[in-house]
Write a structure and sequence with these properties.
By secondary structure, the chain is an alpha+beta fold. The chain is 28% helix and 28% strand. Strands 1, 2, 3, 4, 5 and 6 form a 6-stranded antiparallel beta sheet that branches.
Length: 134
């Protein structure tokens, strides 16, 4: 779902089977696919129009906000570098280990970032830190 008047190159991503969150240059979520809704445990109606940091764990939000301007200055398709253990946080507080690939999309001078997200297995270090058995 989208609240914005978006170009077709962006809205077509809504129909993807992948978990994709499309973010406008200033960090506002413009599109979220159904698969992303399931992964993050949030409906697009609740997240579209909000800052993408709503999906980032509290302890990492400020760092994420600090990285965004650098990506905008030199947009490129790449794997997201979120430290050794990239994570997302669901509204219920559940932390989800993720892998994310950033795809820079420029349409009519407007920059969007399509974040392709997959859930990943926790590393043994993460399991140990969380008190889980490896």
């Amino acid at each position: 779902m989208s609240l914005f008047d978006l170009p077709p190159d962006i809205t077509k991503l809504e129909d993807s089977d992948e978990a994709i969150v499309v973010v406008q240059g200033e960090g506002v979520v413009a599109v979220m696919t159904k698969a992303a809704e399931e992964l993050f445990g949030v409906s697009s109606e609740d997240i579209v129009g909000e800052f993408v940091e709503m999906l980032v764990p509290d302890k990492k939000r400020w760092g994420h906000q600090a990285y965004r301007p650098g990506h905008l200055a030199e947009p490129a398709d790449r794997e997201m570098d979120a430290g050794p253990f990239p994570e997302a946080e669901r509204p219920d507080g559940t932390i989800v280990p993720i892998a994310a690939r950033l795809e820079a999309i420029s349409v009519d001078g407007e920059l969007y970032v399509a974040v392709h997200v997959t859930e990943r297995e926790r590393t043994p270090e993460e399991q140990e830190a969380a008190g889980e058995e490896a």
